[in-house]
Specification:
Family: Belongs to the LovG family.
Domain Serine hydrolase: 7-233
Distance between the termini: 28 Å
CATH class: Alpha Beta
Strand order of the largest sheet: 2-1-8-9-11-12
Shape: globular
InterPro entries: AB_hydrolase_fold, FSH-like_dom, LovG
Oligomer: single chain
Strand content: 15-25%
Number of domains: 1
CATH superfamily: Alpha/Beta hydrolase fold, catalytic domain
CATH topology: Rossmann fold
Helix content: 25-40%
Number of helices: 6
Number of strands: 12
Keywords: Hydrolase
Protein name: Serine hydrolase domain-containing protein
């Protein structure tokens, strides 16, 4: 009997001060709906810091807690936390993603999408922008990273700018530097109606994405993943539309 071909994979990026184990729990409701079609590859960020927003008390003793940017020392509390202003996808992050993509491909699979929660949404945006820039230049990806993402999904989006690999950062006088083009790869942006950081996700969409290919939806939550069965079904259907539309 022939083995079943691997399902297409989605890379999943947790929020600040979280980790893959925690995000696996947070994704559980939606993951049950997606896993008949996709393999979800949930990654751990490389930089360790304090627990992020909404992580405690439920995920107490579930560390180490990780960030996609270098945590900065908070002078008031002494805690390590991301500053939210970095724009560079550091080499350690590129390495995590490159390793994951190569492992999927070595097993005969393909990474077709990326989803991110909160700070993780900035990684997704950076990957999509980098991919479009690499395609424009007709070269290889930074640090050997070469993705073929067909769609992206963000949950409770974070501050712009996207985390863009350093090799593609704008440089003064560099005619081949990344311009101000908006991300055109089809995307879904899920915002919480009661999320106090909603303005950050809206700013990311408004400043960084092409409105003709970016769809925003609202769910009745605070700064966390959708809870209700109906809302998870709705998000799943929107993701399936992105996938089917990319074929």
């Amino acid at each position: 009997m022939n083995a079943q071909p691997p399902k297409p994979s989605i890379l999943c990026f947790h929020g600040s001060g979280s980790n893959a184990m925690i995000f696996n729990v947070q994704l559980a409701r939606l993951a049950r709906l997606l896993r008949p079609t996709f393999d979800l590859v949930i990654l751990d960020a490389p930089f360790v810091g304090a627990p992020g927003p909404g992580v405690l008390p439920f995920f107490e003793d579930c560390g180490p807690y990780a960030y996609w940017t270098h945590p900065a020392r908070n002078g008031t509390t002494g805690a390590d936390r991301g500053t939210g202003i970095e724009s560079v996808m550091l080499p350690e992050v590129v390495d995590v993603i490159t390793k994951a993509v190569r492992e999927v491909e070595a097993n005969g699979g393909e990474v077709v999408g990326a989803c991110g929660f909160s700070q993780g949404s900035r990684v997704v945006a950076g990957l999509l922008k980098a991919q479009e820039e690499v395609e424009r230049r007709g070269g290889d990806g930074p640090g050997g990273l070469r993705t073929r993402l067909r769609f992206g999904v963000s949950f409770m989006g974070s501050y712009p700018p996207p985390l863009l690999p350093a090799e593609l950062q704008r440089k003064s006088g560099d005619a081949d530097a990344v311009g101000e083009e908006r991300i055109k790869t089809p995307t879904l942006h899920v915002a919480g109606a009661n999320d106090k950081w909603n303005f950050a996700g809206e700013k990311m969409v408004n400043e960084c994405f092409d409105t003709s290919t970016a769809k925003s939806v609202i769910v009745q939550t605070e700064h966390h993943m959708p809870i209700s069965v109906e809302e998870n079904e709705m998000v799943k259907e929107e993701i399936m539309k992105l996938w089917k539309g990319s074929k």
